């Protein structure tokens, strides 16, 4: 019908422009931004969530940062998303509300700061994601090898004071820990863009694109970028097309699963079946012997 065609054309013209899809990206992929700062004003946080849902993000992590270098801070209990927002925005193209998870990031500049993670704090266990931001090479090594965390943040606003080494990075990958790169500093300032790309390339030389996620840390809706734009930025960071897409989709899901395991698992029991003595010696059991003789 002419009227129906006209209505369809109007709907398409008022919709948001489609972003270019990199090769290897599926339109049905589930995207996530695991670093949205917890703003003190609820209205500004609401606008960030609405912008993320409009861009197509299905999951967003509200990040609570604690810097021990500043005044003494306590790890508070995370606020439930249902208490913050009575109604959540609908994800564009998904027809379901955006999912909100909680995240705690600890900025550590001294080995004593890591004791908070080693202690059995009830409030720490309530967060869906635990991230650590090490400031020195020693603390980076400790985070990769010993700390029970889900994410290790990489500094992108200044030149790193140390070089990434293969043994701790590989150990972190084996433990299921992921490394986080932020893209917002790269679009704010040319100097930070240079540091972001340089630090990211240094990490890619060691990890070969494995266990990487890309987050925003956006404080305003205008600083958010769509998932496919972020995947294209990942190419500048040294990621392949498939790794760049995974950095905003499947890798983020793996981080959430790792956090869920950390919260619920207290230990792992391995069972191994040992052969019986008669089987090891090649001698048949008595029952089988009788059947063979008959």
Characterize the structure shown.
The protein is α/β, with parallel strands linked by helices and about 290 residues long. Helices cover about 40% and strands about 15% of the residues. It has 14 helices and 7 strands. The chain has helices spanning about 1-15, 40-55, 80-85, 115-120, 120-125, 135-145, 165-175, 185-190, 190-205, 225-235, 240-245, 250-265, 275-280, 285-294; strands at about 30-35, 55-65, 100-110, 130-135, 150-155, 180, 210-215. Strands 1-2-3-4-5-6-7 form a 7-stranded parallel β-sheet. The protein is globular. The N and C termini lie far apart (about 85 Å). Residues about 1-25, about 265-270 and about 285-294 have low confidence and may be disordered.
């Amino acid at each position: 019908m002419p009227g129906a065609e006209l209505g369809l054309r109007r709907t398409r013209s008022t919709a948001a422009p489609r972003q270019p899809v990199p090769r290897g990206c599926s339109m049905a992929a589930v995207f996530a931004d695991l670093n949205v700062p917890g703003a003190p004003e609820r209205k500004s946080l609401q606008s960030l969530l609405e912008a993320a849902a409009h861009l197509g993000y299905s999951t967003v992590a509200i990040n609570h940062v604690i810097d021990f270098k500043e005044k003494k801070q306590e790890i508070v209990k995370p606020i439930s998303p249902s208490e913050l927002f009575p109604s959540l925005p609908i994800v564009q193209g998904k027809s379901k509300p955006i999912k909100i998870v909680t995240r705690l990031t600890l900025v550590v500049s001294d080995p004593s700061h890591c004791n908070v993670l080693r202690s059995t704090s009830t409030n720490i266990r309530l967060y869906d994601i635990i991230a650590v931001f090490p400031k020195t090479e020693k603390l980076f090594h400790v985070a990769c090898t010993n700390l029970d965390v889900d994410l290790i943040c990489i500094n992108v606003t200044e030149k790193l004071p140390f070089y990434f080494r293969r043994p701790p990075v590989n150990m972190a990958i084996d433990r299921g820990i992921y490394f986080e790169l932020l893209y917002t500093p790269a679009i704010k300032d040319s100097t930070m863009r240079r540091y972001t790309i340089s630090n990211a390339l240094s990490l890619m030389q060691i990890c070969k694109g494995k266990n990487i996620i890309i987050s925003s840390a956006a404080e305003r809706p205008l600083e958010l970028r769509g998932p496919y734009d972020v995947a294209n930025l990942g190419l500048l960071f040294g990621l392949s097309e498939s790794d760049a897409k995974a950095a905003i989709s499947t890798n983020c899901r793996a981080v959430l699963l790792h956090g869920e395991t950390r919260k619920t698992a207290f230990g792992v029991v391995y069972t191994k079946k040992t052969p019986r003595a008669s089987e090891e010696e090649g001698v048949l059991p008595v029952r089988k012997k009788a059947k063979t003789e008959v």
